[in-house]
Amino acid sequence: MTPVESLQKRLAALRTALKGAGALLVSNLVNVRYLTGFTGSAGYVIVTGKEALFITDSRYGGGALGEAGRLYETIVIKGTLERTLARLSRRLAAENKKLAFEKTVSYGFYEKLRRIFGSGVVPLGGVVEGLRTIKDDYEMECIRKAVKRAEDAFNDIKGHIRPGVTEKALALRLEEAILKKGSQKPAFPAIVASGENSAIPHARPTGRRIAPGDLVVIDWGAECEGYCSDMTRTFLIAGGQKGPGLARKKRIYRTVFQARSEAVAFVTKAYSKGDGGGKRPKDIDNSARYVIKQAGYGEYFGHSLGHGIGLEVHEQPGVSPRPGLNKPLARGTVFTIEPGIYVPGLGGVRIEDMVYLAEDRPEVLTHLPRGKSGI
């Protein structure tokens, strides 16, 4: 599938989702990119049953969409966005009595839409985000490349995970390696957290030097054509103290590894069936959380088991105990499984992998060693 064929399918899917909802104004730039391929900083999309309009300013002009421009009519803003939308409102009125807008807009932008379109302006949330949860062949090709770039980058720098190296230096080295592998940027700022810092799930790298006996959590990702990867590995640095502290760190690691394995096995068993066997995201979360609770560390696992990933590192669907996650995951979904235990004063462990719900059975996309080779 070519990129343009992928965009064509997305536009058709959005029109199907919008039946009866009138026109939709898309202002979230991630959603604009998903629908058009546009990567600039100023772009809007209006989709109706018959029309597909891309609105941008003079910095980008008519060539902003490249080959995908044949799917959308490009309209360059003249004067202000408000005046341009006012001119379009008359054009759209014949076909649509309502204009839906994304709930993420500011109140000021909503007021402008009300002045232009009147009472026909209605909020509509999550439509494009819902479409984004299902990855097509082109998207999966990009995600697989993002995973490979991240893993290749890590393999290039893993020899530097040793005593004396600062968290910041290791994070910078990893991010540089990600760029060298072809990513335009890291998917997110790399997390390198050692010793007591590893007990902070989203710690920022500091000037702390890695020391013998430290737990070191490394969380990183690459990108390809905007699509992200996300993975975490934890290491125990050799040469540290002996006794209860070291034994406890190893026990925590084994518990997290078991929780990750149980969750992957749960997903594999449930989603090798056509409908997911009725298993919901919260059931996946519970399969790992139960292992951690049984080991006595339930209070030290405070975050969700996982999240969707694609054009954003964190997107739908959530994999957590949060109420409302009552439907099985759909085929084509990509999400993470990342159990963790974080004990203040001692350290933390997280192991994160990406899973793709392919048509026949789930597939773990991330392949870097874990388990005995990871600690």
Tell me the layout of helices and strands:
Layout: H1 3-17, E1 23-26, H2 29-36, E2 43-47, E3 52-56, E4 73-76, H3 81-93, E5 99-101, H4 107-117, E6 121-123, H5 127-132, H6 137-157, H7 167-180, E7 191-194, E8 215-220, E9 223-224, E10 227-228, E11 231-236, H8 244-271, H9 281-294, E12 306-308, E13 315-319, E14 334-337, E15 340-343, E16 347-350, E17 353-357, E18 362-364
Parallel strand pairs: 1-5, 3-4, 5-6
Antiparallel strand pairs: 1-2, 2-3, 7-8, 8-11, 9-10, 12-13, 14-17, 15-16, 17-18
Could you characterize what this model shows?
The radius of gyration is 23 Å and the shape is elongated. The mean pLDDT is 92. The longest helix is centred in the last third of the chain and has 28 residues, at 244-271. It has nine helices and 18 strands. The protein has two domains: 3-132, Creatine Amidinohydrolase, Chain A, domain 1 (3-Layer(aba) Sandwich); 137-374, Alpha-Beta Complex (Creatine Amidinohydrolase), CATH 3.90.230.10. The protein has helices at residues 3-17, 29-36, 81-93, 107-117, 127-132, 137-157, 167-180, 244-271, 281-294; strands at 23-26, 43-47, 52-56, 73-76, 99-101, 121-123, 191-194, 215-220, 223-224, 227-228, 231-236, 306-308, 315-319, 334-337, 340-343, 347-350, 353-357, 362-364. The protein is of the alpha+beta class and 375 residues long.
